[in-house]
Write a structure and sequence with these properties.
The protein has helices spanning about 1-30, 50-65, 100-105, 110-125, 125-150, 155-160, 160-190, 195-210, 230-255, 270-275, 290-315, 315-320, 320-330, 340-350, 355-370, 375-385, 390-400, 405-420, 425-434, and strands at about 40-45, 70-75, 80-85, 90-100. The chain is mostly helical. The termini are far apart.
Length: about 425
């Protein structure tokens, strides 16, 4: 009897572990099949976009790079290449993706320089390695999701810790190798084109990124009752309106910034130094496209407007729900001692881009309550966003009052130091922590 009970117990335990292993294998197999695609992508052909293909063909001819299988226009500001592997990793093809926001700002020669940089990633075989790592990251994140969604404790014990460990290692490896690959691709451009042209292209793309991250942009499309039909047209009009006032400020910030080891790309400053440009002082002109080329870009903008509207029109109400809730919070706010209501109001102001009002509001709270850590933190956060170094004092005060702010405070202050090229300050800060 005793033996029988032990046998049943052992068999049952072994059966659970076996089922857990089988379940883990099934989860992994289900996660192996991946089809990579992007919403609102637009594949173009040379018959309709002769000027754009002239630029692309010229870059390929100059570098003797492998031919591209597809050219896709996406909604963003990036230019990139990928070895697109569908299914279980077969049927790879080289795809050049160009963001419509990059096309809007680059001249033909600047675009050619940027494409040569991307072609270098193909013939240096960076795309094969990065695509495989990216596929593994997608695959293992899918595994984590499937396990988290399930309720099998054995799968969680056997699979989840390894999956999370593996994902972190892949991410660190991808970051570490990417910066080196970017600098090598930059040097390939210098073999075929003027570094001045490439430097200008890189600066323009950085300026577009600064604009898109601009917290003071007055472009607020969420106030519309329905999804706008001319989103990209309106966006570029806002860019052209902001540019005269912000261009020099953005360029100075871009030239000072240094990179972190966790970034996939080196900073603009580091890239220019690697190309032998110690002082970037070139004139940046955003109106240097030929008429025929510009017509093709304008046609693509119209198509992207329609794609964007179609994508958002059926989910506009849900997409703007939070915005409308924030409006109601601001509209109905009354003076109160309830800190949750107070912070809810301040964060609503932030969400609507009313940063000056939010800053004054948080400062008023902090001056009336010297022990309010969250108000101190918010004051410092907005001041650093405004590139005001005095914000560090408020951030540090918030940590003194409440240690739970420590991790996020270190991140915000580090970003400020990176933005302003203050590597020695970062070193001092982390030495103090250690």
């Amino acid at each position: 009897m005793n033996f029988a009970l032990k046998t049943d117990f052992m068999t049952g335990g072994f059966g659970l572990i076996t089922l857990g292993l089988i379940g883990s294998v099934i989860i992994i197999l289900k996660s192996l099949y991946i089809k990579l695609e992007s919403p609102n992508e637009l594949t173009i052909n040379r018959e309709e976009y002769t000027q754009l293909f002239k630029v692309i063909d010229s870059a390929i001819e100059m570098t003797k790079a492998p031919k591209l299988d597809e050219i896709c226009i996406l909604d963003d500001e990036n230019i990139g290449v990928t070895c697109l592997l569908n299914g279980f990793g077969a049927n790879g093809k080289n795809v050049l993706v160009i963001g419509i926001k990059a096309l809007k700002v680059l001249s033909e020669e600047e675009l050619k320089a940027a494409i040569i940089h991307e072609l270098a990633h193909i013939y240096n075989e960076d795309t094969k390695v990065s695509s495989e790592i990216s596929r593994r990251l997608i695959r293992w994140n899918e595994i984590v999701y499937r396990v988290d969604e399930g309720d099998n404790i054995i799968k969680m014990i056997l699979l989840l810790p390894f999956a999370k460990f593996y994902i972190e290692k892949l991410e660190r490896y991808l970051d570490a190798m990417s910066q080196t690959e970017e600098l090598l691709a930059d040097k390939e451009v210098a073999k075929y084109m003027s570094v001045e042209i490439y430097a200008k292209a890189t600066m323009k793309l950085e300026i577009m990124e600064k604009f898109l991250a601009n917290p003071y942009s007055k472009l607020e499309i969420r106030s519309s009752d329905e999804a706008p039909k001319n989103y990209f047209t309106t966006l570029f009009e806002d860019f052209e309106s902001e540019l005269p006032n912000r261009k020099e400020q953005w360029m100075n910030q871009i030239k000072k910034r240094i990179s972190s080891i966790y970034y996939t790309h080196p900073s603009f400053k580091e890239r220019m130094e690697a190309l032998g440009i110690e002082d970037f002082n070139y004139d940046i002109n955003f109106n240097d496209q030929s008429d025929d080329y510009k017509k093709e870009i304008d046609t693509l903008i119209e198509i992207k407007n329609k794609q964007w509207h179609k994508y958002w029109s059926h989910q506009w109400e849900e997409g703007t729900k939070e915005y409308k809730e924030q409006l109601e919070i601001i509209k109905n706010y009354k003076d109160t001692d309830d800190i949750e209501k107070i912070m809810e109001y301040g964060e609503a102001l932030e969400d609507l881009g009313e940063y000056e009002k939010a800053l004054d509001f948080y400062k008023d709270i902090a001056s009336n309550d010297k022990e309010c850590a969250i108000a101190m933190y918010k004051v410092g956060q907005i001041m650093l966003m405004n590139n005001d170094e005095e914000g560090i004092e408020f951030i540090e005060k918030s940590v003194e009052l409440d240690g739970s702010f420590f991790i996020s405070a270190m991140g915000i202050i580090t970003e400020y130091f990176l933005d302003n090229g203050m590597k020695e300050k970062i070193d001092e800060m982390y030495e103090g922590v250690n």
